[in-house]
């Protein structure tokens, strides 16, 4: 009997990628829309490999009793939706895009969205469009910000942060960059200046966040650090919601401390009881403040999905083959 792979969002995997998987496994397409139904699919089909998505929390509630499961594969660069401690205790291996950095080095969809959010917030595009949809024509309500000669601070200078720096330089901006990893600044463009975080926040007209969620980066942009930001600045976050203090951002926008906020992520978005309308950022957006929220669509383009799904599938098959060979050698 062939081993089973259960694929969430299988319709987003190109057919040739699924065919690649089918050379080794029976590929099952998940139709689950919640954690409970996904749990039943895993148990009923004795699934050995789960290709998960961002919308379902991978934790004890899902996997308790799923003794057949050996691998969780996540086509994401972040793992805030995965309880890594639980998987380790259960002996389940995790494969994710962090393992294939070279294969996705030219995937910039999230950086492109960050720039789109920055442009939209700086010119109040969402508010202006909503106004015209209501039959209004009052440009005086939508005084915006220009980008040329302004300072952008990039928090996290990896693949995406560096690409945002490229966009900023093309728009005639001055770039400050912060990262805890010294290696990312090797061969840095001369037009980019490395900065400490507090100095970056104090000097930047725009701040764009591009760091992975870890215990160290959680609440990195805290209430205190929001207070350190330059008055009239714009903050963009396309990393993870837990990296910023959302309450402090909302208060800063309402008080006029910040010109606006654009985010593609929200705190606890992968949790079972997440309700988007309870987000204070969404509430502020609905109440006419210059806050723009999109539903984690950063990497959600056809080109990016193809490259990442192919890369993660190849990586999993490589890991699985090595595990099989190791097992044979032991036996």
Report on the structure:
There is one protein chain. The chain has 331 residues and is α/β, with parallel strands linked by helices. The chain folds into two domains: 4-101 and 302-330, NAD(P)-binding Rossmann-like Domain (Rossmann fold); 109-293, Rossmann fold. Helices cover 37% and strands 15% of the residues. It has twelve helices and twelve strands. The chain has a seven-stranded parallel beta sheet, sandwiched between helices. Strands 2-1-3-4-5 form a five-stranded parallel beta sheet, with helices on both faces. Helix 5 crosses helix 7 (159-170). It is globular, with a radius of gyration of 22 Å. The two termini are 20 Å apart. The model has no long low-confidence stretch (mean pLDDT 95).
Percent strand equals: 15-25%
Radius of gyration: 22 Å
Structural class: alpha/beta
- N-to-C series of helices and strands: EHEHEHEHEHHEHEEHEHEHEHEH
Number of strands: 12
Question: Main sheet: which strands, in order across?
Answer: 8-7-6-9-10-11-12
């Amino acid at each position: 009997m062939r081993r089973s792979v259960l694929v969430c969002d299988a319709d987003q995997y190109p057919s040739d990628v699924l065919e690649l998987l089918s050379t080794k496994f029976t590929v099952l397409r998940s139709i689950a829309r919640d954690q409970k139904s996904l749990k039943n699919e895993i148990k009923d089909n004795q699934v050995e490999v789960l290709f998960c998505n961002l919308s379902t929390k991978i934790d004890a509630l899902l996997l308790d009793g799923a003794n057949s499961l050996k691998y969780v594969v996540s086509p994401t660069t972040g793992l805030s939706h995965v309880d890594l401690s639980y998987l380790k205790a259960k002996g389940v291996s995790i494969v994710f895009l962090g393992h294939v950095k070279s294969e996705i080095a030219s995937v910039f969809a999230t950086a492109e969205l960050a720039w789109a959010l920055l442009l939209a917030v700086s010119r109040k595009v969402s508010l202006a469009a909503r106004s015209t949809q209501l039959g209004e024509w009052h440009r005086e309500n939508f005084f915006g910000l220009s980008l040329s000669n302004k300072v952008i601070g990039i928090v996290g200078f990896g693949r995406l942060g560096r690409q945002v720096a490229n966009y900023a330089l093309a728009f005639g901006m001055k770039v400050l960059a912060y990262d805890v990893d010294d290696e990312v600044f090797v061969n840095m463009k001369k037009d980019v200046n490395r900065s400490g975080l507090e100095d970056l926040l104090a000097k930047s007209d725009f701040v764009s966040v591009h760091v992975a969620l870890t215990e160290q980066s959680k609440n990195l942009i805290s209430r205190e650090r929001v207070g350190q930001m330059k008055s009239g600045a714009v903050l963009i976050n396309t990393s993870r919601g837990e990296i910023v203090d959302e309450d402090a951002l909302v208060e800063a926008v309402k008080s006029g401390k910040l010109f606006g906020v654009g985010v593609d992520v929200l705190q606890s978005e992968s949790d079972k009881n997440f309700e988007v309308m309870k987000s204070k950022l969404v509430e502020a957006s609905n109440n006419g403040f210059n806050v723009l929220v999109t539903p984690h669509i950063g990497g959600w383009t056809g080109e990016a999905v193809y490259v990442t799904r192919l890369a993660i599938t190849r990586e999993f098959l490589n890991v699985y083959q090595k595990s099989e060979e190791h097992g044979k050698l032991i036996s």
